[in-house]
Automatic annotation (TrEMBL):
The keyword Ribosomal protein does not apply. InterPro entries: Acyl_Trfase/lysoPLipase, NTE, PNPLA_dom. Keywords: Hydrolase, Lipid degradation, Lipid metabolism. This is Patatin. A motif (GXSXG) lies at residues 46-50.
Length: 374
């Protein structure tokens, strides 16, 4: 049973294969704790690939180092074929099935569209996640709550599916909902379903896609679950190279710009709002803060110190041949349009490079992070 202490939330944003960076950050933090120490985080909030990482850690909230070690083991052995179908038969058959389904009469149910078949990812998540452990960690007091955010194509709302202590209440805000449920693979697949790339996932009577699409307030799930502190590991791409402004942006440049905007811009706005609120509350006494049911929320934002694109270019040759062919057919050069490639390069060389980057960046901020997690 956890003793009474400030509730620290770990917020993991989305970014496809870039989420390997988060594994490196957590690997460094885990080394600061004894082998059997519980997780310093009692609240987890994840979106897209960050949701997959959050779930893996929450299952082992009672043994932080074990959870991180298992997460690193999974990522370091990833290949694209474990995420989506990469064989010629698998890719062409999947696209052909969708094309044929759309030629049928409208009364026939049509599958959700996606360029890539993510069925292998479903199998992987079913193998590595023991969802029954979540409720056990909650009952033992090691886990206060975990939220997985997805976007509803039916309502246009950002829906955070959460599982946690009974004190956590569902919420209904503008374009943002919190719904208590028993989390499973469908919630993770829905949260990670990048539009056009992966098909949407059906939960109940509605289809859901990537949680970053309509997420206007990424901090809200952590705050609604009672977080006192929030550690955010963002996957924004650092633009360290000057783009060629004389060259018209192509499909990949537009797609990469759009995806970077979806995954990061709302977080920046939400953090700015939180900072203003903290400044305002700093002028109130503790009793006044309590009276207004508001409190100062300490937070730290970690993001990559380097751009993902040079690494994606260096490792793009590891992409399966059919994936590269499909990208070229729709006007994307895997090497030249590295912003897109950096999301889809689930190959060992690239993944390990991101893990190493996250590890090194964390060590540079060790003193600040240790104080924050104390």
């Amino acid at each position: 049973m956890r003793t009474t202490s400030p509730k620290i939330s770990l917020l993991l944003t989305g970014g496809g294969a870039r989420a390997a960076y988060q594994v490196g950050v957590l690997k460094a933090i885990a080394e600061w704790y004894p082998r059997v120490h519980h997780s310093p985080f009692t609240i987890y909030s994840g979106t897209s690939a960050g949701a997959i990482n959050a779930m893996a850690l929450a299952c082992y909230a009672s043994s932080f180092r074990l959870g991180v070690k298992k997460l690193e083991w999974i990522w370091s052995r990833l290949h694209s074929r474990r995420i989506f179908a990469t064989s010629p038969t698998g890719m062409l058959g999947f696209l052909g099935h969708q094309w044929f389904a759309r030629l049928q009469a409208h009364h026939h149910a049509r599958p959700p569209f996606g360029l890539l078949n993510n069925r292998p990812l479903r199998h992987l998540l079913n193998q590595v996640n023991n969802y029954n452990r979540i409720e056990k960690q909650i009952s033992a007091g090691n886990l206060h709550g975990i939220a997985i955010t997805a976007s509803s194509y039916k309502s246009g709302d950002s829906v955070s599916f959460f599982q946690g202590q009974n004190s956590i209440e569902p919420w209904d805000r503008a374009r943002s909902k919190g719904r208590r449920t028993l989390l499973n693979t469908d919630h993770l697949l829905a949260s990670a379903a990048i539009p056009i790339v992966f098909p949407a996932t059906r939960i109940g009577q509605a289809y859901y896609g990537d949680g970053s699409i309509h997420q206007l307030a990424p901090l809200r799930p952590s705050l609604k679950m009672g977080a006192d502190k929030i550690l955010i590991i963002d996957l924004i791409n650092q633009k360290l190279e000057q783009p060629d402004h004389t060259r018209a942006p192509g499909l990949a440049a537009l797609g990469g710009h759009l995806m970077d905007t979806i995954f990061s811009d709302t977080l920046a706005a939400d953090l700015e709002n939180l900072s203003r609120t903290n400044t305002l509350l700093g002028n109130f006494s503790p009793s006044e803060q309590k009276q207004h049911k508001m409190r100062i929320i300490d937070h730290i934002l970690l993001c990559p110190s380097k751009s993902f694109e040079p690494l994606a270019r260096a490792h793009y040759g590891q992409l399966p041949p059919m994936t590269r062919t499909l990208m070229r057919l729709i006007g994307i050069s895997p090497k030249d349009d590295a912003a897109i490639t950096s999301y889809l390069l689930f190959e060992p060389g690239y993944i390990q490079a991101l893990i190493d980057m996250g590890y090194e960046d964390t060590l540079e901020h060790e003193a600040i992070l240790r104080h924050f997690l104390n």
